[in-house]
Design brief:
three-stranded antiparallel beta sheet, about 80 residues, 3 strands, single chain, alpha+beta, about 30% strand
């Protein structure tokens, strides 16, 4: 991910709920999209969210798709 990339992925966590958080896909020109995770298996099954690895992969794939779409629009 280049420094001037208009799409950035950032990890968001809180100390109040350990092993959980989200990966935000942040855009320069629109609202961010979040992929939530919980690495506590019990909470994860109740909340029906991904593991941190799964959430990161989903965020990366979404960012990649959006970059391709933006590049196609420029061409």
């Amino acid at each position: 991910m280049a420094e001037d990339d208009p799409i950035k992925i950032k990890k968001h966590t809180t100390e109040h709920i350990p092993d959980s958080g989200s990966y935000g896909v942040h855009f320069a020109d629109r609202d961010s999209v979040y992929f939530y995770f919980d690495d506590n298996a019990g909470r994860r099954s109740i909340r029906m969210v991904d593991t941190s690895e799964q959430a990161l992969e989903r965020a990366k794939e979404f960012a990649r798709t959006e970059r391709e779409r933006m590049n196609d629009e420029r061409d």
